[in-house]
Design goal:
Blueprint (H helix, E strand, L loop, with lengths): L8 E7 L18 E10 L7 E8 L1 H7 L10 E3 L5 H15 L4 H8 L4 E2 L9
Parallel strand pairs: 3-4
Antiparallel strand pairs: 1-2, 2-3, 3-5
Length: 126
């Protein structure tokens, strides 16, 4: 049995530079329902810092509209039925719950299955 982790991942902010403010965005059609979402995520351990993660959010119709031929290939895309800010927030919080691990590093590795991380390709020069 896994020991319960007293700390969890928390979503501090969810926004989009494409559709600011995100909570007021109302796409005209399902084909227009495509945006990049920025996620400010932290651990609930009292630390002041957080990290940014990025994900695209789209309906199947919007992806189909943007397809370039036979294959629709997207990395880290959440496919939604329609845009609903509150439902999207709940879905992302569910992902955060599933990705919470004992350490930030382990949690971050799990998060990268779903979201691009601001430091993903960053290499420390030592």
């Amino acid at each position: 049995m896994r020991k319960a982790n007293k700390h969890r991942l928390v979503l501090r902010e969810m926004s989009s530079t494409m559709t600011d403010p995100l909570d007021q965005w109302r796409p005209r059609t399902l084909e227009d329902t495509y945006t990049a979402v920025d996620l400010d995520i932290a651990m609930s351990d009292g630390e002041a810092g957080s990290n940014l993660f990025y994900v695209k959010v789209a309906t199947p119709e919007a992806l189909r509209r943007r397809a370039k031929g036979f294959l629709i290939a997207g990395h880290r895309v959440l496919v939604i039925e329609k845009f609903d800010h509150e439902q999207l927030r709940l879905a992302i919080e569910d992902i955060l719950e599933k990705c919470t691990r004992d350490t930030w590093e382990a949690s971050c590795a799990a998060l990268q299955r779903y979201f691009a991380w601001e430091y993903e390709d960053f290499a420390h020069e030592g």
